[in-house]
Design brief:
Helix content is 37%, strand content 23%. The chain is of the alpha+beta class. The protein has a 4-stranded antiparallel beta sheet, sandwiched between helices. Strand 2 and strand 3 form a beta hairpin.
């Protein structure tokens, strides 16, 4: 399994397992072996798993388009991070595959995700991406809510 698939698998497992980690401990004042107490606030991360959405996109860019791609993506990232529904927007170059990038987006809820997809600057970036890509991109949508990424009910 290559690094990207391993990373996606780990992220999916983490995303789907977070409800277990976000619950309070059964016995929050349980004594640790060394005699220290474990505080009730000892949680790994609390998130609203019923609403938060993740988008993972794998982009393949031609080498001669890399500079223009990075410049446009920096602008897109700056604008997207200002959206109220955006919690994270990060690009990772693939170290073992030149021209390949993984983009991880994290949105507060479905409304934040829909708002992002409706923005004119995203449409403009996608048009430019058509000329820069070396092969079709792959996009994965993650949510712990069944059917959460389908059209609103």
């Amino acid at each position: 399994m290559n690094r990207t698939r391993t990373f996606l698998w780990q992220l999916a497992c983490l995303t789907l397992s977070i409800p277990v980690f976000s619950r309070p401990l059964n016995n929050p004042d349980k004594q640790a072996p060394e005699g220290r107490t474990i505080p009730a606030a000892n949680k790994l991360y609390t998130m609203n798993t019923a609403t938060e959405k993740f988008v993972i996109a794998k982009l393949y860019i031609r080498p001669e388009s890399a500079a223009a791609f990075r410049q446009a993506l920096e602008t897109l990232a700056m604008l997207t991070r200002k959206e109220t529904g955006c919690m994270e927007y990060t690009l990772y170059p693939e170290p073992t595959e030149p021209g390949a990038f993984t983009l991880i987006e994290h949105y507060r809820d479905q409304a934040g995700l829909k708002y992002h997809f409706a923005q004119p600057y995203l449409a403009e970036f996608i048009k430019k991406l058509e000329g820069w890509k070396s092969k079709d991109l792959k996009v994965y949508f993650l949510s712990s809510e069944p059917d959460a990424l389908k059209e609103d009910k």
